[in-house]
Amino acid sequence: MEEIIISTIQRTMVAGTPLLLATTGEILCERSGILNLGVEGVMAVGAVVAFIVTMTTGQPWLGVLAAMGAGMAISVIHAFASISLQANQVVSGLALTMLGLGLSGMMGKPYVGRPLSVKMENVAIPYLSDIPYIGKALFYQSPFFYLAVVLALVAWFFLERTRLGIQVRSAGENPKATETQGVNVYVVRYWSVIIGGAFSALAGAHLSISYSKSWVEGMTAGRGWIAIALTIFALWNPGRAIWASFVFGGIFVAQYLMQPLGISPNFLAMLPYISTLVILLVISLGDPRKLNAPAMLATPFKRGER
Amino acid sequence: MIHFTTSDRYNITAFRSFMTNVGSLGAGLLVISIIFLVAGVNPIFAISEIFMGSFGSVYGIKETITKAIPLILIGAGLTLAFRAKFWNIGAEGQLLMGAIFAVWTAQTLGDSLPGPVTVPLVFLAGFIGGAFWGIIPAILKIKYSINEVITTLMLNYICAEFLTMLIVGPWKGKTRFGFPGTDNLPDAAILSIIPGTRIHYATLILAIVCAIVLCVVIYKTRFGYEARVVGENPDAGKYAGINFLRTSLILMAISGGLAGFAGVGEVAGIHHYLGYPASVSSGYGFTAIIVAWLAKLNPLYAILSGLVFAGIIVGGDAIQISLGLPAATVEIVNGTLLIFLIMGDYFLHNKIKITFGK
Description:
The complex is a heterodimer of chains A (306) and B (358).
Chain A: H1 2-31, H2 39-57, H3 60-84, H4 89-108, E1 123-124, H5 134-138, E2 140-141, H6 143-161, H7 163-173, H8 175-180, H9 185-211, H10 223-233, H11 238-258, H12 265-286
Antiparallel strand pairs in A: 1-2
Helix pairs in contact in A: 1-6, 1-9, 1-10, 1-11, 2-3, 2-4, 2-9, 2-10, 3-4, 3-9, 6-7, 6-11, 10-11, 10-12, 11-12
Chain B: E1 2-8, H1 14-38, H2 43-55, H3 58-83, H4 91-109, H5 115-144, H6 148-168, H7 201-220, H8 222-232, H9 234-239, H10 244-271, H11 277-280, H12 284-294, H13 299-323, H14 329-349, E2 350-356
Antiparallel strand pairs in B: 1-2
Helix pairs in contact in B: 1-2, 1-14, 2-3, 2-13, 3-7, 3-8, 3-10, 3-12, 3-13, 4-5, 4-6, 4-10, 4-12, 5-6, 5-10, 7-8, 7-10, 7-13, 8-10, 12-13, 12-14, 13-14
């Protein structure tokens, strides 16, 4: 029993890690006023780039850096279209997802089914990992897990407590007023989209070099879309995103836990998606105002327009 | 120094709009060529193979028309939804739900009724299935202010799993030798095809009629006007007393229903049984988004743009075989073209003056 509890918590944390990374990135991006539906595609590109670089160089961290670089580069497309050209952000983001899934499929084709020989070892946090039960579950994890939690906290601090963070938020709430304060809204939004892309790619890297240690086409399996829903669930707050992501990680794990009970595996596979709808509905029934997105989310900002 | 000054363009003619699309597609093809080049494939050869594979042979043209049927149906429905700024990304799920309803109806009726009665009933069931799956996000959006992009997407996944659950479980056919899938549909529900092709013409005619009717609905009826106001100026719509819930319900019932029609066409016209979701629809619900966009949200033009993207699917299959490229290649082509199409809008709506000097 003890073993089961520990492994359940541990697997929940593992499953929640990519969700937390991608959600943090999307929150940053949406706070600046840009909706990025390209998360799924950028995640796939991150996964394949991390895998290829890790396999060829034998250096997982080099793979992670390369993935982030690729994620940032491909996100520039969405930034350019939606910020400079004021294009429709829903469609631009979808196009980015199509492109990302396509590119990852093409790049990864020679690597399908090849296992990774280098492993990213779990890291034990001294002393804390000795705590009974939760020590092993929470403090003996892949480096990605710690990275995800720390980055979410940093993002929270950045958005809520720093000058630059206020600029990001006000770019999303009232870009016109922000511009009159001497802030370049375009620059703020560009960087928010690009750094958001790095986060999505990091989530992908976790999937391919830490979580499954292999590459298969479509391995992101809708996690990017769930991250977009989690952004709403977290009410655009990276702090809330931490527990929201791990709740969803738990739902992913519950699928496997409930399989021996004889419930249809397809029904269990629906759980994360049904939960998303139910949770959004519960938030809305509780207090619909909470669902208020950044005021100018997905509204293009055109300089000099009254 | 080079200076760019932009100003709004108000006189957007149909010709300029068309030429912008042509320019966008041209620029997109250029970038796709570069991607092919990097992937070690001769881009001129690849692109001409795509074209020859889809429009360059009798077989290709037949296949292109077959695949255009669902794209026209869904694309036309999406033009209505997108005009009201209802971002329906769930056509894939609506198609599958239409197929599920159609298969249930066909299997229940069996051969008890003659074909001319059964077929319309099956189409009706498909429409209801798609509409049902389409109005859920409409209710969630208008009554509970839940973003439709998320809900329509989640419903795609839910429907795909639900369908799989049916075909591996209660609906698993006795004639499938243990493989997932229903038994074949009764003969009365099978759609006739043009001999020598896979074109199920009833659905093709239905698609064209739907596109024309929808064009009239959007431009000539009160409902069409209301749908446009909801999208373009929701505040004005509220003051004018437009019932947002009613309008959204109707437009999503139509948009989802047309996707449901497409689902009927696929199961009753092509496969003749219900198989895995990926075999029922090869991403038509997503490709149709580009179809609607290329059509500049005019359902009539969706007929043409549906043919273009059907051609890309068929040609993409051809180069997969002849050049050994992965299936994802078509997605690269689609994604790139879509990005350039929306970028092109900027140059349609803005005049750009380039001046040289200080």
